[in-house]
Amino acid sequence: MIEFKQVSKTFKIGPREVHAVKDVTLTVEQGDIFGIIGFSGAGKSTLLRLVNLLERPTSGRIEIGGTDVTSLSAKELRRQRQNIGMIFQNFNLFNSRTVAGNIAYPLKLAGTPKTEISRRVTELLQFVGLADKAANYPDQLSGGQKQRVGIARALASNPDILICDEATSALDPDTTSDILRLLKKVNREFGITILLITHEMEVIQSICTKVAVMEDGEVIETGGVFDVFTDPQHGTTERFIRSVQQDLPSPGILKEWRDAGGGKLYRLLFKGPIANEPVLSRVTAKHGVTFNIVYGSVRELQERLFGNLIVSFAGDPVATAAAIDEIATLTDIEEVIEIER
Amino acid sequence: MNVDWTTFWPRIVEATGETLIMVIATLIFGSILGVVMGLLLFVTRQNNILENKIVFNLLNLIINIVRPVPFIIFLVAISQLTRLVVGTTIGTAAAIFPMTIIASFTIARVVENNLVSIDPGVIEAAQAMGASPLRIIFTVLIPEALGPLVLGLTFVSVTLIDFSAVAGTVGGGGLGHVAMTYGYQRFDGSVMIVTVLILIVLVQVAQWIGNTLSRKIMRR
Ligand SMILES: Nc1ncnc2c1ncn2[C@@H]1O[C@H](COP(=O)(O)OP(=O)(O)OP(=O)(O)O)[C@@H](O)[C@H]1O
Ligand SMILES: [Mg+2]
């Protein structure tokens, strides 16, 4: 468990102060895949680097498994760091060492016996799917392969926690999903808590269980990924969500619809099991109204369904109003009003 | 007046040996001192693993004072110190002392420059894994910079061949001394040509060794 308690970090550059992290309180539970998302400069990297004290907090406490890490001696901190694997956007592999040598490095630090090192290196290479690359040097590998080596190296010392700084940002979409799948496997098979930062909502959507949104050094929203995605509280969060799922047709299409004399549009949200029920057809049939789906999607998030439909109704206005009222008792519905975005 | 080449060859061979000794000894002592100073310069920089303003600024200042001094002037300027340490200011050993000092400062800069070009992310990765500063120096900094470092040392050793000739002209022995006493003072052109040719060959060989070694290290 990682706990940030009122943590702030201020950089001083000459007379200027940069408040990179401001009063962040956050708990990452054991076994979570916790994602922190934010735009460039939001303070994500700084927050992540506070976990293994690559950066020291200006104020506040960071507790890992109940221990205040800021109070550790240099030696205790080095021991603690062996318990926190870290992977990087640019991989940061040792070019002077082979793949096997890179993975062996943290084991050598921990004073592991030679035979045990070679056994563990083989095992890890197998786990990340690079068994044939042991003797290669990093500059002979692709980006995805390099990150696999990075992951194997981070796992070598059997850490409880893995922290990832934009681990997939330098990779193409296919390789990104490979690496994300591997991270999920790391979490599932070894129960390792993963704290990752990203500016890509796809990453959060595809592997995280919890998410925190950062802006200007502050955590502005946090919660389970499903809840945050289906009911964002903050404009920035909505912008991130819209980057992976468009919830409205584009303004051009909407205008065409209006110009062609189309009626009022309503947005319906279905969360969880209700997405499986024929709510719309049942209620409209009961009130003698017809409906037309103009736009929409039903997607899976965190193994739960989430539907977002834009519909129009046709029929007697009173009956239509009654149908809409009844739908509102079952799920979220709101009229689509063009808002400048 | 021309030398008798049948008897002069052994003198040339001996002088070449002296030059080699001067250069190699200087390279060894100078590398040890220079690598230590270069590492210190690097790790004590701002935001580095053993940041220390006093050590950094002091070293930086000393190096900046000594390096611009032309070697021939430096040689003469520290001759009292050379006499104190070596016991004499004449001969091969007496040349090695000032050459080592100059070489170590030059090597310190070469080492520092090569270390600066290491990706800081790699050093950070080692820190994140729990490596101590000393451990990082020996298992990350040195291996990661070794290839370019060998090229830098090669460059320095070529300069040292030059320096050894300079030292030779003021009593240091070696090929410089031979060229000076026979070629310059006795106007024997053939001695001059032979010593120059040998110096060229030495430089070529040094460069070749350096290139081969660094290529091996960098696997290119
Ligand atoms: N070592 C440092 N010295 C001074 N300022 C820093 C330092 N590290 C970060 N900052 C500043 O702190 C702020 C947050 O930076 P940080 O790297 O944490 O952002 P980020 O969210 O990771 O951004 P990105 O997505 O671009 O990586 C920025 O304004 C940055 O300039
Ligand atoms: Mg960052």
Automatic annotation (TrEMBL), chain A:
Keywords: Amino-acid transport, ATP-binding, Cell membrane, Membrane, Nucleotide-binding, Translocase, Transport
UniProt superkingdom: Bacteria
Ranges where the ABC transporter domain occurs: 2-241
Annotated GO biological process: amino acid transport
Keyword set includes Iron: no
Gene Ontology molecular-function annotations: ATP binding; ATP hydrolysis activity
Gene3D superfamilies: 3.30.70.260, P-loop containing nucleotide triphosphate hydrolases (3.40.50.300)
Pfam families per the UniProt record, alphabetical: ABC_tran (PF00005), NIL (PF09383)
Cellular compartments per GO CC: plasma membrane
PANTHER family per the UniProt record, alphabetical: AMINO ACID IMPORT ATP-BINDING PROTEIN, METHIONINE IMPORT ATP-BINDING PROTEIN METN
Family: Belongs to the ABC transporter superfamily.
Protein name from the UniProt record: D-methionine transport system ATP-binding protein
Organism: Edaphobacillus lindanitolerans
From TrEMBL, chain B:
GO biological process, one term: D-methionine transmembrane transport
UniProt superkingdom: Bacteria
Keywords attached to this entry: Cell membrane, Membrane, Transmembrane, Transmembrane helix, Transport
Ranges where the ABC transmembrane type-1 domain occurs: 16-210
Gene3D superfamilies in UniProt: MetI-like
Membrane topology listed for this record: Multi-pass membrane protein
Cellular component GO terms, alphabetical: plasma membrane
Cellular compartment(s): Cell membrane
TM region positions: 20-43, 55-78, 84-108, 145-170, 190-210
Entry keyword Transferase: no
Name of the protein: D-methionine transport system permease protein
Organism of provenance: Edaphobacillus lindanitolerans
